[in-house]
Amino acid sequence: AQSVTQLDSQVPVFEEAPVELRCNYSSSVSVYLFWYVQYPNQGLQLLLKYLSGSTLVESINGFEAEFNKSQTSFHLRKPSVHISDTAEYFCAVSEYSGNTPLVFGKGTRLSVIA
Amino acid sequence: NAGVMQNPRHLVRRRGQEARLRCSPMKGHSHVYWYRQLPEEGLKFMVYLQKENIIDESGMPKERFSAEFPKEGPSILRIQQVVRGDSAAYFCASSPTGWGTDTQYFGPGTRLTVL
Questions:
Q1: Dist. CA B94–CA B97, nearest whole Å
Q2: A98 touches chain B (CB under 8 A)
Q3: Which end of chain B offers a freer environment for a tag, N or C, measured as fewer CB atoms within 10 Å?
Q4: In whole angstroms, what is the distance from residue A92 CA to residue B102 CA?
Q5: What is the DSSP letter of B71?
Q6: Partners of A65 in the β-ladder
Q7: Each residue of A17-57: pLDDT tens digit?
Q8: 3-class SS letters over chain A
């Protein structure tokens, strides 16, 4: 069974400052890794995912995440945040084998302060 | 191409009533997942269905909860005799093949309040 730990439940940060949202996972098998974002009263949207290949993956809106197998981490970073990045961010994993559901962390609430 | 549709968006029920939550997957998607989000918690998997089949219901409470995905029409999550602890946001997601590499596309959720 897999588990996901998001170490910070809330992260306040000033606009244009960098941010890192931490995610660690535990699994006895190889996994795929995902970051989803949830804006208030909306569903989740995929931000980025790691399947294989380069350990650094990027999203279209400036976020990036790096898969570190030895540390079982998949931290999300952005060099300069905007007010519009205020949202809840969820890290998730799924097993390599097919037909498995996503296992989510508890989420990190990012609040960007003007 | 419409996204995942869920209705109703908000549902209020009194204890003991039944709640029916509907999910229409994206066009071309035949795999549906239901998740529950309790306050201050992440999403917890409940059930995974393919057309007319339940593939994995390991996250579903043993009593009062059921799910179906008929050949025609939306997937339905049914909660009988609701209790206050059932109050949560219920999200449906769909994917084209069900493989771990697939992106799951989420609906806007149904927020159930049990009075």
A1: 9
A2: yes
A3: N
A4: 13
A5: S
A6: A57, A76
A7: 999 999 999 988 888 999 999 998 788 999 999 988 888 99
A8: CCEEECCCCEEEEECCCCEEECCEEECCCCEEEEEEEECCCCCEEEEEEECCCCCEEECCCCCEEEEECCCCEEEEEECCCCHHHCEEEEEEEEECCCCCCCEECCCEEEEEEC
Higher pLDDT, A78 or B103: A78
Interface contact A42-B108, CB threshold 8 A: yes
Write out chain B residues lying below 8 Å of A9, CB-based.
Answer: 40
Q: Around B75, how many Cα atoms within 13 Å sit in the side-chain half-sphere? A: 32
d(Cα B96, Cα B27) in Å, to the nearest integer? 9
SS3 state at B8 = coil
Nearest to A102 among B45, B97, B99 (CB): B45
Q: How far is A95 from chain B (nearest CA, A)?
A: 6
